[in-house]
Specification:
heterodimer; A: alpha+beta; B: alpha+beta; three-stranded antiparallel β-sheet; elongated
């Protein structure tokens, strides 16, 4: 039974007014601009886009500002916004092999076509706080170097030439790519739907699961075959025109994880793979995703499900942070009536317990 | 005149639309203002903002899967001579989509094609190539040149 209780209106309005005040902070300091957030907190913007599953840098920055930097709140805001828009259709699949690469590293081959391109990375920094950033110090322009024009070959293609690695994942011919935003979750879930779910999954949750596989909870013996980050073109088939037009470019991060071999009576042993792809410069996310993707492919390789990262239903049902925060945070909303019922119940149980105890005590005393 | 347009009107149109999707709003506005004979036109659709589901491929080259959505703005216009233009671009700038649709329509007429080419397409193409080159050179400077150190005596 629900009983409506009123009276919070003024308190709520004033709480939101106070929230707006705290969001703005000290009025003596200039207000953050959306441009500043996009340019100077770019990786936060990328994470919001990835987990909101909506690519729009300006809106993600706005969400971050409105949420006072609370990532999950910002993701929630952007998710809510997307529900207000109609869908025009589906893009052609982006071609990461034709990416304008801004970073590309491989941990499996030192000298590979195109080379190791470090790009703008935190790797090899000393993780020492930089006091220079306390002030607005001038920053050097990036170094430049002529390119030799070598195409940046995908590492999976190098291994594929020798048949040493399983090919890119294929689905049955008649399979249409599913969409978790349109259909309810069902298990077992095909790999395309799992990848969509992981791509919007919480980075922290996926990172912890990925780490757990490395520590032995569903070990997959991974190597980073390749990580690449850069710009890819989004093409869209316009029905009235009969050809695909380019809508512009988006930045994505891709991780090709190479894992230890599987073979069978029919096929000789070959490396298996896990795949990660995420909006923005989201390397930790793409790596975690690829490890979890591989761990979840137990049915394909006849592996036993012995660890959380391999449990499809567990991972898929809990990786969405908007869903998770909704259910956890709803606990703080009024549960007065439910709790009254519980109070009443526990009082009655205690009364019964006391009544049962009394004769026992009497008997015990008599026996003594 | 560009070669693409001469080789096939369709690839020429695609090139134009692809470039117009990259035009900045100020570029489009400036070109529109610079046009001597701005044609009468009617909106057939939009301008409106919606979503396009972006697909990736499993393993990079395998079966498609839905990666996530992106905002897209689009518009369709008919100009006085009857030509229909479409504008499609990432983001929520509906005015830019509308202007792109107008220039797509204008580019279909012999009278206006050279203007669109000169005022917008050639410039955007140049800028895009320069940006790509700059990014490529910045990235190339972070390429690792391995060398081997021989330690000890053999």
């Amino acid at each position: 039974m629900y009983v409506a209780v009123k009276g919070g209106e003024t308190a709520i309005a004033n709480a939101h007014r106070l929230l707006a005040d705290r969001r703005r902070g000290d009025r003596a300091l200039p207000s953050l601009t959306i441009g500043q957030i996009i340019e100077q907190l770019g990786l936060a913007v990328d994470r919001v886009m990835a987990e909101a599953s909506l690519y729009d840098r300006s809106l993600a920055a706005l969400a971050l500002k409105q949420a006072r930097g609370d990532m999950i709140e910002a993701i929630f805001l952007l998710r809510a916004y997307r529900t207000t828009l109609p869908r025009f259709g589906t893009s052609l699949p982006i071609e990461t092999g034709r990416m304008q690469v801004e970073r590309r590293v491989s941990a499996t081959y030192k000298d590979l076509p195109g080379g190791q391109l470090l790009g703008p990375t935190f790797d090899y920094t000393h993780r020492l706080l930089d006091p220079a950033l306390l002030d607005d110090e001038a920053v050097e322009e990036p170094a430049l170097r002529e390119t030799d024009g070598t195409p940046i070959m995908r590492v999976s293609d190098i291994l594929d030439g020798e048949g040493l690695i399983e090919p890119d994942g294929n689905m049955p011919e008649d399979h249409l790519a599913g969409d978790i935003t349109r259909e309810p979750m069902e298990f077992p879930m095909p790999r395309d739907l799992r990848l969509q779910t992981l791509a919007r999954g919480d980075e922290g949750f996926l990172l912890a699961l990925a780490y757990s596989t490395q520590r032995g909870y569903g070990r997959t013996h991974p190597f980073v075959g390749e990580i690449r980050m850069g710009l890819v073109e989004v093409e869209f088939e316009v029905p009235e025109l009969g050809f695909a037009v380019s809508l512009g470019e988006i930045r994505v991060t891709e991780c090709q994880m190479v894992n230890q071999f599987k073979g069978s009576a029919k096929a000789p042993p070959q490396f298996t793979r896990g795949y990660g792809l995420a909006f923005g410069q989201s390397e930790r996310k793409a790596m975690s995703m690829s490890l979890v993707d591989r761990a979840l492919r137990t049915d394909e390789f006849g592996e036993d499900v012995v660890a959380p990262a391999q449990d499809e239903e567990f991972v898929m049902s809990h990786c969405d942070n908007v869903q998770a925060t909704g259910f956890v945070e709803h606990l703080k909303l009024p549960h007065y009536v439910d709790f009254q019922a519980e109070l009443d119940l526990v009082r009655r149980m205690r009364a019964k317990h006391a009544a049962e105890q009394t004769p026992d005590t009497d008997q015990q005393e008599a026996a003594e | 005149m560009n070669q693409a347009l001469q080789s096939s009107p369709e690839t020429g149109r695609k090139r134009g639309m692809d470039l117009l999707s990259r035009a900045t709003r100020p570029e489009l506005e400036a070109a529109w203002q610079a046009l001597d004979d701005r044609p009468a036109h009617e909106m057939l659709r939009g301008p409106e903002t919606g979503l396009v589901m972006v697909r990736g491929r499993i393993g990079g080259g395998g079966a498609p899967f839905n990666l996530g959505e992106t905002t897209v703005s689009r518009a369709t216009v008919r100009v006085a001579d009857g030509a229909i233009g479409h504008g499609y671009r990432l983001g929520t700038d509906r005015r830019a989509a509308e202007l792109a649709a107008l220039f797509d329509a204008l580019a279909q007429s012999e009278q206006h094609q050279p203007f669109v080419e000169e005022a917008l397409l050639a410039r955007i193409e140049k800028r895009q190539a320069e940006d790509a080159m700059q990014r490529e050179n910045e990235t190339a400077a972070t390429k690792v040149d391995f060398f081997t150190m021989v330690r000890g005596e053999d």
